[in-house]
Amino acid sequence: MRKKGKKITPVQLKDAVIRGMADTKGTNIVCLNMEKVSNSICDFFVICDGTSSVQVNAIAKAVEEAVYKLTGNYAYHSEGHKNAEWILQDYVDVVVHIFQPDVRIFYNLEGLWGDAELEEVMIEQEYKRM
Fold first, then answer.
1. Which architecture does CATH list for 10-122?
2. Which of 20, 30, 74, 80 could connect to 62 by a Cys-Cys bridge, CB 3.0–4.6 Å?
3. Taking Cα atoms as reference points, which of 27, 55, 58, 49 lies closest to residue 100?
């Protein structure tokens, strides 16, 4: 994703996604680094929980706003907003998954992509200040 005249790295995009999640109190945020996974579809999966459909939608909107502010672009593809149990946002280099907790447990993306490097994201002041 690129803003006109400004190159955005996948890491900067991932950080914007995490900022959006942190701003709306997304919980259990993890990042799967997919760069070393053969045949991977992106560089990063960023996953978090929201406690209700209202919060899941709010997190998705905050992520969209944070990424748009950085890149000037919206997600290439987005789905799941209607029932908001699992919203997926595809930013090409970064794929975002926002789950309600029981749905996240059921699909177990962290286990499915067990060969990816997993980083548990601690929400620190650095994300809240950006």
1. 2-Layer Sandwich (3.30)
2. 20
3. 49
